[in-house]
Amino acid sequence: MMSRHFPDNPQGRKRAAPHSARHHAPPFWQADRPYLHAQQISDARFRRLGYIMAFLAGAINAGGFFAFARYTSHVTGSMSLAADMVYTREWDLLLVALFSVCCFIGGAAHSAWVIFWTQQKRFRGSFGFSMWLEACYLLVFGLFGATLLHTDWGWGGMVMPSLALFQLCFIMGMHNTVVTVLSGGAIRSTHMTGSATDLGIELAKSVYYAKNHPRLPHVRVNRPKMLLLAGLMAAFLAGGVVGAWGYQAAGHHFALPVALVLFVLGAGSVGYDVKLRLKFFLLRRYAKHKR
């Protein structure tokens, strides 16, 4: 199982279990998540979800760049821009950069709150609901982006960019949160800097381990993690190419197919919750009517 390949996971070190128990232990991204165990999400399905989410993140990010000349998921760049604008005293761009970061944080908080709330209410599709909300916001951008993209808002004598920029930053925060919470922070769909860093660490381990010197400490190489990280980066790159082409071909409407994919991804679990609660509602209505 994949949990064996994550020796740096403190959860794994704390849970010493017999061999038979370890053999059936959940993968690393299901650790401490009993509400997921009943769904039996395999490692292969989780990998596919990670690749699809990274692909969609690359598409949204690239489309946003052609729309605003800014990468809406690049919080590091926004923070660096804010610091530069403080030095050059360009306060309007400083506000734009800071508000972009706040929108990304707000989107992440919004998605996490939805996931936590639906888990508390014992919904099976907690992550699916967050995807559906994100898809709804993308639909708004795709349907009304022409208006939002060409609307400038003056404030205090400074010209602020269109609301669509902040909307995409908010959406990217939501998008990154789903896989981050699901994997326990092991992977992220928009943060390729972290993926590249982790991939470099695993590559260093592979070179270090290959020496096979008796005096060197034992280092376990996590090859499945290497493949996962490399796949996420490749998917993000491919999504960026598709997103750039999509924006050039369809403008803001490029977001509509992305929203459709998110709806499809969350449809199974959300549909299960809807049918189950509708069934309970009808049973209660029937029982009340019988009285």
Strand order in the sheet with the most strands: 1-2
**Arithmetic mean of pLDDT:** 76
Order of helices and strands: HHHHHHHEEHHHH
SS field, number of helical segments:
11
Please tally the β strands and state the result. 2
Structural class, by secondary structure, is mainly alpha
Using the alpha-carbon principal axes, give the shape: globular
The percentage of residues in β strands lies in: under 5%
Q: Please outline the major beta sheet.
A: 2 strands, antiparallel
Distance between the termini: 52 Å
Given as residue ranges, the uncertain stretches (5+ residues, pLDDT < 50) are 1-40, 155-160
- Helical residue percent? over 70%
Q: Gyration radius, to the nearest Å?
A: 22 Å
Explained architecture:
The chain has 291 residues and is mainly alpha-helical. The chain has a domain at 40-190 and 239-283. The chain contains eleven helices and two strands, in the order αααααααββαααα. A two-stranded antiparallel sheet has the order 1-2. β1 and β2 (158-160) form a beta hairpin. Keywords: Membrane, Transmembrane, Transmembrane helix. The chain crosses the membrane at residues 49-73, 93-117, 129-151, 163-182, 226-248, 254-274. InterPro entries: DUF1275 (IPR010699).
In short:
The chain contains eleven helices and two strands.
Give the tags.
291 residues; mainly alpha; two-stranded antiparallel ribbon; globular; disordered N terminus; DUF1275; membrane
